[in-house]
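Design job #97: recover the sequence.
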């Protein structure tokens, strides 16, 4: 890997890790989600420093160019992120429906048992 690309990839990964720490510190990103992004930054750093590992992975999975391997794993990562957040959204939607139903039942109970009820 040319030195310029290696330095760029290392700076990118370190910048990503610093950004994740800062977002967690400012409470903009929950720790629950930060591990995935920290893992991504760490893998980018490792592959930038240890380029032979990327070449080995490329050969093992039968891809011709290391850049294609990075692109493949990038797309795969995005698919996993979308799947993960789809599961989270489904869970939150179910919880919201439950809370909405409970709120409706509580409002009905208050309205039907209120001493100031107009008849």
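Job complete. Output follows.
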């Amino acid at each position: 890997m040319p030195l310029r690309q290696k330095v760029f990839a290392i700076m990118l990964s370190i910048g990503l890790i610093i950004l994740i720490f800062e977002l967690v510190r400012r409470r903009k990103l929950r720790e629950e989600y930060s591990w995935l992004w920290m893992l991504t930054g760490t893998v980018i750093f490792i592959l930038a420093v240890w380029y032979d590992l990327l070449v080995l992975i490329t050969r093992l999975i039968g891809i011709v160019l290391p850049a294609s391997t990075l692109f493949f794993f990038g797309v795969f990562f995005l698919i996993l992120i979308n799947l993960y957040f789809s599961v989270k959204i489904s869970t939150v939607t179910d919880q919201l429906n439950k809370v909405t139903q409970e709120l409706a039942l509580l409002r009905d109970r208050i309205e039907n048992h209120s001493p100031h009820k107009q008849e």
